[in-house]
Amino acid sequence: MSVISSQGTGLYKYFVPVVWIGGVMVMLAFVIADGIRHDPRFSPVPVIGLLGMLAFAVYVMRKTLWDLMDRVEDHGEFLLVRRGHIEDRIPISDIMNVSMSHNQSPARLALRLRKPCRLGDEVAFVPAGSWGATRTFARNPVAEDLLARVDRMREVAR
Questions:
Q1: What are phi and psi of 88, to 5 degrees?
Q2: Residues 53 and 79 both lie in one domain
Q3: 58 and 82 belong to one structural domain
Q4: Residue 100 · residue 143 · CB < 8 Å
Q5: Per-residue pLDDT at 106
Q6: Backbone φ/ψ region at 76: left (φ over 0), alpha (ψ -120 to 50), beta
Q7: Taking each helix axis from N to C terminus, what angle separates 45-64 and 16-38, rounded to the nearest 10 degrees?
Q8: Among 64, 84, 105, which residue terminates a domain?
Q9: According to the model, what pLDDT value does residue 156 have?
Q10: Residue 8: what pLDDT?
Q11: Where in the sequence is the domain holding 25, given as residue range(s)?
Q12: Over 50: is that where the pLDDT of 134 sits?
């Protein structure tokens, strides 16, 4: 058994959104307080802009961060995945596609499944060893290994 997901996943999923959303909320509070205190003709444009920025950030984080698995363990014939209190086993033979996105930070490895598990029909996680600028355009060893094993399973099934 080896853990193939990054140990920094919690940082990405929880710390970054709290800091980002908290920062926007603080800026929003200052803009509102300053506008009310100093300008009798307070313009709502900065408030609307910050609220739009906040909505966009929540949308992006929902699509890219909050669906990440907390932990993925490789047990040879299957992967044990966990998000929150939900844990499920995914046989390697149930993986239809392995895709790695390098164009976002953190890098994201997505496994498309033949049959949906308790966590859905796609399982995404930050693979171990994907941190840093040196990994930006390099092939990720976790993704390469999973891809090779899925391909071997396809060959055996034929």
A1: -150, 155
A2: no
A3: no
A4: yes
A5: 80
A6: left
A7: 170
A8: 64
A9: 76
A10: 86
A11: 8-64
A12: no
